[in-house]
Amino acid sequence: MNLSMKWVNDYVDLKNKDIKQFCNEMTMSGSKVEGYEFEGNEISNVVVGKVLEVVPHPDSDHMVITQVDVGEDEPVQIVTGASNVNVGDFVPVAKHKSTVLHEGKTVKITKGKLRGIASNGMLCSLGELGLSVHDFPYAIEDGIFILGEDCDRTVGTDIHKAIGYDDISVEFEITSNRPDCLSVTGLAREAAATFNVPLNIPEPSFTGVDGDINDMLKVNIVNTEKCKRYCAGIVKNVKIEPSPRWMRERLRASGVRPINNFVDITNYVMLEYGQPMHAFDLRYVEGSEINVRNAAKGEKITTLDGVERELSEEMLVIADKEKPVAVAGVMGGEYSGIMDDTTTVVFESAYFEPVQVRRTAKKLGMRSDASSRYEKGVDPLISMKCLTRAFELVEQLGAGEVVKTVIDRDYTDKTPASVEFSPEWINGFLGTDISESQMKEYLERLDFKIENGMIYAPSFRIDIEYKADVAEEVARIYGYNNIPSTQFKGVAEAAFTKEQLFLRKVENTAVALGCYEIATYSFISPKYFDKIKLPADSKLRNTVTITNPLGEDTSVMRTSTIPSMLEILSRNYNNRNESARLFDMGKEYIPTEPGKLPIEPSRLTIGMYGDNADFYELKGIADSLLKNIGINGCEYVRCSECGAFDEASAFHPGRSAVIIKDDTPIAILGEIHPDVAANYGIEAKVYIAKFNAVEMFPMAQTEISYKPLPKFPATTRDLSLICDDSIPAGSIEKAIKKAAGNILEKITLFDVYKGQQIEDGKKSISYSLILRSHDGTLTDEQADTVMTKVLKSLKEIGAELRG
Amino acid sequence: MKNELEKIHSEAMEAADSCDSIKALDELRVKYLGKKGGLTAILKQMGKLSAEERPVIGQLANKIRADIEEAVSKKMTLLKAKEQEIKLAKETIDITLPGKPQSLGKLHPLTIVSNEIKEIFMGMGFDIADGPEVEYDYYNFEALNLPPDHPARDTQDTFYITDNILLRTQTSSVQVHVMENKKPPIRIISPGRVYRSDAVDATHSPLFHQVEGLVVDKGITMADLKGTLEMLMKKLYGDDCKIRLRPHHFPFTEPSAEVDVMCFNCHGEGCRICKGEGYIELLGAGMVHPKVLEGCGIDSSVYSGFAFGMGLERIVMRRYNISDMRLLFENDLRFLEQF
Fold first, then answer.
1. What's the CA angle centered on B311, arms B308 and B317, to 5 degrees?
2. Which of A171, A466, A472, A573 to mutate to probe the B interface, most B CBs <10 Å?
3. Is residue B302 a part of any domain in this protein?
4. Does residue A334 carry a pLDDT above 90?
5. Considering chain A, what is the average pLDDT of its residues?
6. Number of domains forming the structure of chain B
7. Residue A514: which of B105, B248, B336 has the nearest Cβ?
8. Which of residues 10-69 of B touch A (CB under 8 A)?
């Protein structure tokens, strides 16, 4: 909403308010100012001049030399290329060192010579002042603006003042609960309440000519639920012409382009009171009857914008005898407007039910100024006042003869909204100490009535329903910043839940292991499933899908975090970051039943490439992570042996694994399949691990109990074994652990060797075992006994001591 | 004999003094003090002395021995120190050569600030609550006093899954879950992801983060809301941080406010960063609307409450002077390394 400061001063005296102060205080009382603009602020040092002489330029066919009186001792000589300047014309003169607009940009005008003749300024066109013929319909677009009688033609007068181009336009952000403030009178009321100055909105009236409207027009409201008020009147013998300067000026400052007197009047009244008005040519109202009814099935209308639209039965239309002429509250039909040869005009001022208008506008994909006001809710009791105001303006402008009698179909409920008035409750709710009389005074400034302990809201305040609504009115006039700041009472204990602590520990461990956290989008493209070679029948392809996505790339909620990680690794790779080690703590969105919400389990995803990145580096990270978060005794199996993760397709089959804890698969990790890496444009080897973080929480040993440091020394035994290459180290380790029992404190693999001195198909594998007893110093005999047992069970799986 | 001793004495002392290596000093000690050394050789002749001379010479010999020992030892300390000095000097390295890179990880700036906010509120007795991101229309809109045809729905361009299921546009949805499941007193914050159909640019992202706050109890006032937010801002931005509350409208709070924080750059004077306003909009807040309380089964004649919601990205960007929101989601390491 753009407010003309000139206009609002008609109703409330704000002339002594500095514009900055006005904007600030309006914002602080609830009408947010987005900004303000002095009209024509780009134009400076341009004054009214009178053309005294026009002679041809000796060296140019299309230029003339003018002498212009600008109210100074000597006339100013200006050379111009315009052909519409005559002696005696009053023109805008951009003097030496002035600024004007040229193609929307500010340009400086200085003295100069044009084909050898001195020119000490410039005569301006409308465009150079930032105006158009809509603002001054008698002027021409491509010539000098010759000031008409509606301007102050005193030579030397600043052009802004002379042509009424000196308003300030203030832009307000009006929230959806305050449609009444989408009007000059509404904001005038807010200003009056804010600055505590009187508000004076005169009651409109018109004289009219004799005649019975019922002989000229029939109005029938079929749906009185959706159309609660319909006021109509007629203007005969209309004279379509431009509106006077003052009206054009105000429309311009309000951001509305002046068209002609009738269109301008409807816009003027809408801006003034917030009531959309419609004016249409009676010639095109078949049978001179207006029916406000629901559209018939399949009925069509071509709206003002020239588009044919199919209506549906729940839509409300304004129809003549034959057809719809307007979509109620949204837009008029093609022929419903005012034309140059219009002789009789029907004015409509109505109240349509907000939800009705909103649904219709939305369904037709057609938002208008009228619909956006109706859908928020206009004052249901103001229709007749606005019709009257329109007629007052018609008469004031001499635009036609208003028929004295009008039609008023009224089905509105006139009971005002009322709330109990309890100053004590309000103070208790706000934490303030405002006196009852002060509260009353604030509320009365806003046109509330207080009687017998009740507050009655004015009809335009559609947002008052609860005591809290009244508290807000009091608070904003009192000033939010005058409310004290207090700390609320009561004791509350707060703590992270165990799960929150667990997930935090997971994050912190990933950081400690050298990973950088990333933030990824929750949505991906369904094509990404192909990029990770997910099988066509994978359940992960069943996604939560956005029906109105921004684009395909963000159209489905991810069922796997792996594509997100690959995307970020790829971006880093392409940005030439040599190596990366990243983690993401994010959710997956797994559909459940139709119509039900998906589950959103948290996943830890680690991804890396570059320095040191290989399978065992990643496995080392995984092991350290699991150990630190209290998940012990995990097993690694090949993806081919455990089908828990469909994303196995994204991994190198020989270099990937599933981690299993107590029969539950908790993670997948490994080298990304070269094809998948290629799909992401990564030429390096990529490693990813995905942990089912949230499912790991219940498995985690989160309680830590201190174990005494060992009292007795340990014995170390090294073991070099030889076995078939196919025997996984894991099973050797398992066998050693099982055979050694509790006495084995730690086992470390220190060498795997294949090659010279080792038979083909065999490998040498070496471990260092730390043995310790908690009952006493381990003797050599005890250690030997354990080692014998170990060797025996190793022999059973085919591993022997290397000779 | 005495003369001999004194000769040895002065000779040895001189030799010790002029000795310039540990090895020479060792030899010197052996030469004079060793079993086959000069002093011993003389002492071996003690037997030839008279009974009167013996103790005198003996005493002298012992003193000389002690003298030489001391001189040698002093010299030894000196030489060792010198040797150490030379050794250390030789070991001097170029301390401007780069250090060996260590593998360091870091949290994302969004997490860093989110954790900070969580800790501030936890200190004020707020629990951390969570809610689904894919949400029923009811929790995101309807229960928050935004019925299906409410015009304020337009201000939040919503991603829909079905007519009834959507991606939450605000963490306020968690308010409803919490109030449905817990009786007052309630004090929670809920950080999380929210979604709006905004195309990506320097200040917009279809996915961003909010932190919601909710307090419901008997006698909660708007003054309490102000006090709580002031506390938050002071802890986040320092004790001299000033905020102002501006009336605004949110369907689920009444009264509603937008909360501005005084511009860090110009301290309220008005500058380019705050677009001349002196304040920067930071969050929305208000007293929980009675309809919302009632809808969750909380008697609004007994309980009142306040709620607030802030955009995490905005706070993070302000904190680190990040001018483009896209950087937060691009995750370039050169960006991530800076926090």
1. 140
2. A472
3. yes
4. no
5. 94
6. 2
7. B105
8. none
* Domains of chain A, each with CATH number or no CATH: 2-39+168-195 (3.30.56.10), 44-162 (2.40.50.140), 213-410 (3.50.40.10), 418-482 (3.30.56.10), 498-699 (3.30.930.10), 715-801 (3.30.70.380)
Q: Are residues B162 and B231 in the same domain?
A: yes
Q: B111, A517: Cβ pair inside 8 Å?
A: yes
The verdict on a CB contact (< 8 Å) between A548 and B246 is no
For residue B275, the 8-state DSSP code is T
Q: Which of residues 145-204 of B touch A (CB under 8 A)?
A: 149-152, 154-155, 159-162, 164-165, 167, 185, 187, 193, 195, 197, 199
Residue B152 pLDDT > 80, yes or no? no
Q: Do B70 and B148 share a domain, yes or no?
A: no
Give pairs for A181-184: CB < 8 Å, separation 24+.
A181/A1, A181/A31, A182/A1, A182/A274, A182/A373, A182/A376, A183/A1, A183/A270, A183/A271, A183/A272, A183/A273, A183/A274, A183/A275, A184/A3, A184/A4, A184/A7, A184/A8, A184/A10, A184/A11, A184/A254, A184/A271, A184/A272
Is B123 in the same domain as B82? Answer: no
Q: What does the block give as tokens for B239?
A: 């004790």
Rounded to a whole number of angstroms, the distance from the CA of A681 to the nearest CA of chain B is 16
Residue A122 pLDDT exceeds 80? yes
pLDDT of res. A5? 97
* Residue among B160, B217, B224 whose CB faces A548 most closely: B160
Nearest C-alpha in A relative to B161: A546
Alpha helices in A339-422 (DSSP H): 354-364, 369-374, 383-397
Residue B44 lies in a domain: yes
At A205 the pLDDT is: 96
What ipTM is given for this predicted complex?
Answer: 0.87
Are B85 and B118 found together in one domain? no
Q: Using CA atoms, how far apart are residues A779 and A781, in angstroms rounded to an integer?
A: 5
Residue B320 maps to a domain: yes
Minimal Cβ distance to A577: which of B106, B224, B332: B332
Question: Model confidence over A246-277: pLDDT tens digits?
Answer: 999 999 999 999 999 999 999 999 999 999 99
Q: Which of A428, A548, A580 sits opposite B159 (nearest CB)?
A: A548
Q: Based on the fold, state whether residues B328 and B228 are members of the same structural domain.
A: yes
Nearest-CA residue of chain A relative to B227? A485
Q: What is the CATH number of the domain that holds B241?
A: 3.30.930.10
CA distance B126 to B132: 20
Question: What are the angstrom distances between the C-alpha of A88 and each of A49, A50, A75, A124, A617?
Answer: 10, 6, 13, 16, 92
Q: What is the mean pLDDT of residues A519-539?
A: 95
CB contact under 8 A, B125 and A575: no
The answer, yes or no, to whether residue B263 has pLDDT greater than 90, is: no
User: Under an 8 A CB cutoff, do B223 and A510 touch?
Assistant: no
Length of chain A: 803
Question: CA-to-CA distance for B154 and B149, rounded, in angstroms?
Answer: 10
What was the pLDDT predicted at A756? 85
Could you tell me if B151 and B293 lie in one domain?
yes
Mean pLDDT of the region B30-35 = 84
Task: Give yes or no for residue B112 having a pLDDT over 90.
Answer: yes
Those of residues 62-91 in B touching chain A at CB distance below 8 A are none
Q: Which pairing describes strands A121-123 and A168-173: parallel, antiparallel, or unpaired?
A: unpaired
Among B199, B222, B332, the residue with its CB nearest the CB of A429 is B222
B172 and B309 share one domain: yes
B44-100 pLDDT tens trace: 887 788 888 888 888 888 888 888 889 889 999 999 999 999 999 999 999 999 998
B219 to chain A, any CB pair closer than 8 A? The answer is: yes
Boundaries of domain holding B48: 2-90
- Report the predicted TM-score, pTM, of the whole model to 2 decimal places: 0.86
Q: What's the average model confidence in pLDDT over A407-433?
A: 95
B269: in domain: yes
